[in-house]
Specification:
This protein has about 120 residues and is α+β, with helices and mostly antiparallel strands. The chain has 4 helices and 7 strands. α2 (about 25-35) crosses α3. The longest helix is centred in the middle third of the chain and has 20 residues, at about 40-60.
Length: about 120
């Protein structure tokens, strides 16, 4: 079992590093939190979660993760764009994109510029 300080370090809560986290970091967290698992079993758990999310999104389904957020496939309409090199106007066809909306709880837990979340306090 890993102590809270070590877990926070693995989750990046102790440094201002801009390197981000990787899938391997998530595997390490699952492995550390659940002492009865092997690294391969922890990796399989993380893989199954990602495969399930990808498959659902590929089928056009919305994926909601409580207290985290919502992943959704959206259709982006066609529009006129400008080639930044030549300045030529061109039409960009409509296409599918992926959007993520963080949950209110996630927003409240993230510190941005020293302030909790982005919402205004209610009076």
């Amino acid at each position: 079992m890993v102590d809270k300080k070590s877990l926070n370090h693995r989750l990046g809560k102790t440094s201002g590093s801009a390197t981000g986290r990787t899938k391997a970091d998530l595997v390490d967290v699952v492995y550390d939190r659940h002492g009865g698992l092997t690294k391969d079993e922890a990796a399989e758990i993380v893989d199954v979660i990602f495969r399930t999310v990808k498959k659902s999104l590929g089928q056009g389904q919305t994926v909601r993760i409580k207290n985290f957020g919502t992943f959704e496939v959206t259709t982006r309409p066609g529009r006129v764009g400008v080639n930044p090199v030549s300045g030529e106007k061109m039409f960009i066809e409509s296409h599918k994109g992926l959007s993520f909306r963080p949950s209110r709880k996630l927003k409240d837990e993230i510190t941005i510029d020293g302030h909790k979340g982005r919402r205004k306090e209610r009076e």
